Each structure stands twice: as structure tokens, then as C-alpha cells.
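Example record used in the benchmark description.
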Amino acid sequence: MDHLLGNAEKPIPEAQSEIPEDEDEEGLKAHIAKVGGGEELVARSIKCSECGKVFRSEASASFHAEKSGHQQFEESTEEIKPLTEEEKKAKLTELREKLAIKRAAQEKEDQKSNKANEALRRKAGQDVNRIREDLELKEAQKLAAQKKREKVEEAKARAAIKAQIELDKKAREEKAAREKALREGNAPKEAEPVVAVKPSAAIKSSDNPETRLQVRLSVGGPPLTKTFPSDNTLIDVAEWVASENLAYNVDTVTLATTFPRKTYSREEMKKTLKENGLTPSAVLLAT
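Model output (C-alpha cells):
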């Protein structure tokens, strides 16, 4: 304090420069370079703030961002030196090795995929062949069943024609015999019924409660025999014939007596066996 009060009237000396005036130009340049003055900083590369890699161009930095997912980049004054011939060769060799490894992995993956696709193709081909074989087998079975039905129908038709021929032949023979007997003055002999049932002594034949019928089939085969109540109709007999032989239909079957020759109409089919005079027994032809 005493020093300040004693020197208060004296002038304040000028501040001296940090750099002495007697330094030469070389020293000044060195000092400026040391404190960082004089030159502007220039960005010479792009640096990834996340991994520290340096890139020459924005295209390289963008490619790195797409590959790595890094998003933080900054400009850098670090200059990337060009590669020497040895470094270029080493880099090219490294890239070729990576590419070869990548191609080998891709070929392995392609082989695996092709093998799986081939297995699927073979399985699909086997399934198609199996389906085709099943269809061919079903078609063959269907054709065989159809041929069998045709043979059965053809046999039935031949049997029906043969039976009709026999009936016509028998009718012609009987007619010729009757005409011959009339010419010679002799009465024709009546044919005996194929099936005869002796009536009970206490009951008249027409009042018998049961009627025994033998039905011959025009389609061939053994005759059908059954005893019906006398009050049953011929429609009941037709239903029974249709149930015994699938070649007949109850709506189209026709019943007739062989001797004397008589074909029953649909109205007569509704009458009872007694009303049609078939009691106690009779022989019918089903066509």
C-alpha cells in the first residue's frame, strides 16, 4: 500500500510483447506454428465417432454406415495416406480371400437348398404317380364291374329269350296236338299241374285259406315256391318275386299262368289269389 501511494504520480509503463523484438523471423514462424496461429484447419477426411475409422470420401462413410449401422460421423484433419504397391497387393489378396470364402459359403447354401428342393420334387412326383395309379386302379375296377354287369344282363336276356322260345314251342306243340285230336275226333288230354296240393276233405279247394304258388322266372334260374294266404293279392306275389330276384321290379313285373295261357292285367293284379282262381295251388310265369 505504501508502494502504491509513493508511486501514484509516476506514469504506468507500457506492456511488453510476449515475443521479444529482437527475435528473428525464423523464431517468429516457429512460435506461431507452436501456438497454432496463422494457418486455417482443413478437413481432410471423415471419421466415425463410434468406431474411430477414417474414410476418404462421403461415399465410403455412407457405405460404412449402411453396413455397420453407425450414425455418428465428424470431419477430421487426419489425412489418409495413399496405399503403397505392397499394401495395395495385400489389400487385394485379402479381398479375394474374403470373396472366395463368401462364394464357398454361398455355394454350400445353394447345394443345401437344391438338395431340399430335389427332395420335395421327388416326393411330389411320387405323390402324383401314386394318385395316378389309384385313379387307374379305380377306373379298371369300375370297367370290370361294368363288364360284369353287362355279362349278367346279357345272360339274363339270353335266358329270357330261351325261356320264351321254349314256351312258344310248347304252346305250338300243344296247339298242334289239340288240332290233330279234333281232326281225329279225340278230346285233347289236359296237362297235369306241376305242383298239386290235395285239398282237405272238410274244406273246398276254392275256400282253402292258403295258396301254394310255384313261380318260374323268365330270366332263368330255379323256380320260386312259397305258400301265401289266399286273401293276398298278386301284387304281394310280385313284391316277393322282386325281393327274391333283383332282375324284377314290382311296378313292371308281369305274372301269367302257363296252362291255360293267361296274362294278368294290372287290375287283376289287385285281386286276391282266391278271386283269380289260383287257390289252392298254381304255377305262374314271371316276366
